[in-house]
Amino acid sequence: MSDPFSSQRDVEVIRRRNVFVRAGESFQSSPDFRYLWLSNLFFAGGNWAVIVILSWLVFETTGSEFLLAVFTAVRLCPMWLGPVSGVIADRYDRVLIVKIASVWSFVVVVLLALSVSLGHEPYWLLVSIGLLTGLAQSPSQPARASLILEMVGRRNIANANGLNSMAMGLMQGVAPALTGVVLSGFGAATALWFASIWYLAASLMVWQIGAITRSVRQEHEPILRMVMGGLRIIMQSRLTSAVLTVTLVANFTLWPVYNSFMPVFAKDVLGLGASGLGWLLLCAGMGSFCGAFCIASLGDFRYKGALFLFGTTLWGVAWAIFGLSDRVVLSFVLMGLVGITSATFGVMQTTLMLMTSPPEVQGRALGIQELAIGAMPIGSLGLGAIAAGIGVGATTFLAGSVLVVVLLVLAVRVPELVRYTGE
Fold first, then answer.
1. Which of 115-119, 218-222, 407-411 has the lowest mean pLDDT?
2. Enclosing domain of residue 240
3. What is the C-alpha separation between 375 and 256, in angstroms, rounded?
4. Which of residues 176, 209, 242 is at a domain's end?
5. More confident residue, 149 or 313
6. Does 215 or 142 have the greater pLDDT score?
7. 254 shares a domain with 138
8. Which end of the chain has the least Cβ crowding within 10 Å, N or C?
9. CA angle 323-326-330, nearest 5°?
10. Is the pLDDT score of 5 beyond 50?
11. Predicted local confidence at residue 413, as pLDDT
């Protein structure tokens, strides 16, 4: 007669050994997370599609690099509302916030698609739409990230954030490529209708999420007092402050390189055309996807802080070497390494922000993180000025080196972050 307990143990051993089963642990433990993950996937696809279409329309309409830069700055400025967005995520129903953001984006893009279909696409309208989509995207991020912890718990939060990062990396490559095909083949109006389908799918998925209750919610405290109180609590934690420091420095140094300098590397440094630029970005995207999958497959691993610090250090080293490279094959390999190591930064910064913050301020912690990410446009201007004098290669080497130095200092000054396990 077979032993049922032995059979159960055998099943558990198989589950632990199967890397794909471990990677999908959060999908199995929480149906609500599955719906949120799909909503995040489609929402990210819509965001990337709209960025491609609006940027194309702005430059086609104005022919001005400066007006394109103004449009980009306006689109990104809602990130500076991060602390207020965090308060909203702590104060109100997070599922409702995500629902409103998804429907808001769908309606805004449909209205623009109607306008473009009628031949009406003035610059002021494109800038306004960029702002409106930014108001749906950036302020909803604290609610989306906080919901992940509520759905899967502390044990699976690294796994869930890894799965979420895989979705973001996938859409970063797939959505712009599909949008470019539709845009070049059928025009901007059709591309906008195509983009609206992403947001519609995101809305339908989030509407499947059940009611989630929280034991901590401050309903009647004034918003400004909640912002200041949350900031005070967050900054009292050496761990949370250290993670925020890394996020701020990374968005002053390396993310501006990725968002601004890659066309220059492809054309002037490596002698590649537009297709070569696409392949470089694809290497980074696939590397990020693989890195996020590896983190997701680790499950509830120890030394989360060490992975964050040393993985992000390798990210800075990879960028610094890439800045010095003028060989095509080596640059492709390095860009893949950049993608893999960027996953440790992207996944673990949000994981650690949630795990090191008290439950009552987790939304505000993520809102302050969003504000730190908002340093990217400022960093882009500063690095652009430096690159004008010493070139993009030397500037990238400098940016990567600065991040590495900051991380090594933090490893020495905040050793508890290196040893942090999530307990």
1. 218-222
2. 219-423
3. 9
4. 209
5. 313
6. 142
7. no
8. N
9. 85
10. no
11. 92
Residue 148 neighbours by CB distance under 10 Å: 25
Give pLDDT, residue 215.
Answer: 43
From the CB of residue 118, how many other CB atoms can be counted at a distance below 10 Å?
A: 9
Determine the average pLDDT of the residues in 114-138: 84
Residues 133 and 243 in one domain: no
CATH number at residue 399: 1.20.1250.20
Asked if 349 contacts 247 with a C-beta cutoff of 8 angstroms, the reply is yes
Among the three residues 162, 186, 209, which one is the final residue of a domain in this structure? 209
Q: Which residue has the higher pLDDT, 181 or 249?
A: 249
pLDDT over threshold 90, residue 387: no
Q: Tell me, yes or no, whether 260 and 176 share the same domain.
A: no
CA distances in angstroms from 173 to 22, 42, 166, 287, 294, listed in the order given? 25, 13, 11, 11, 19
Residue linked to tokens 């794909």: 20
In angstroms, rounded to a whole number, what is the distance separating the alpha carbons of residues 344 and 362? Answer: 20
* Cα–Cα distance list, 99 to 95, 145, 279 (Å): 6, 14, 35
Instruction: Give how many domains the chain has, as a whole number.
Output: 2
Q: Quick check: is 55 in a domain? A: yes
